[in-house]
Amino acid sequence: MATKVGLWIDHRKAIVVAVTEKGEEISEIISEVEKQPRRSGDSPLKGTYESHQIPADDSRQRNFTGQLNIYYDAVIASIRDAKSILIFGPGEAKDELKERLEGNNLGAGIVGIETVDKMTDHQIAAKIRQHFAQSL
């Protein structure tokens, strides 16, 4: 595995770029996570069994959290051997992944966390190349 890894991450997918002496490898990890569960105030379902027809908020949240855990575990497995890790992305996922890495005693390898908007795979790879070229 590469010693330097950069990744763009949100709750839907992660683009992992591993920089090695031979070049770079780009991989994509897609999550099975659905959008964060929200419950609308008005329910089209009426009647005495409405509560049985709509999953409870805590049940939906547990399902969402479980899917995220599986996704983050897959991302961590792909970068576990990296010595330097640059994490960036648009939302909360980068910070959640950082906490997971620290919980797995892999936090020492994190060299930076940045907030960026959506990027193409080529932009992500260029950003990672530029970051690690400056840190040599």
Strand content: 25-35%
* Overall average pLDDT: 84
List the secondary-structure elements in sequence, H or E. Answer: EEEHHEHEH
Q: Structural class given helices, strands, pairing?
A: alpha/beta
Intertermini distance: 19 Å
Please tell me what the overall shape is: globular
Explained architecture:
This protein is an alpha/beta fold and 136 residues long. It has a single domain, classed as 2-Layer Sandwich (Nucleotidyltransferase, domain 5). The protein contains four helices and five strands; from the N terminus they run E-E-E-H-H-E-H-E-H. Strands 3-2-1-4-5 form a five-stranded mixed β-sheet, sandwiched between helices. The two termini are 19 Å apart. The relative contact order is 0.22. The mean pLDDT is 84.
Describe the structure concisely for a colleague.
By secondary structure, the chain is α/β, with parallel strands linked by helices. It contains four helices and five strands. It starts with a strand and ends with a helix.
SSE blueprint:
Elements: E1 4-9, E2 13-20, E3 23-30, H1 50-53, H2 57-79, E4 84-89, H3 93-103, E5 110-115, H4 121-134
Parallel strand pairs: 1-4, 4-5
Antiparallel strand pairs: 1-2, 2-3
List keywords for this structure.
5 strands, globular, 136 residues, 38% helix, alpha/beta, Nucleotidyltransferase, domain 5
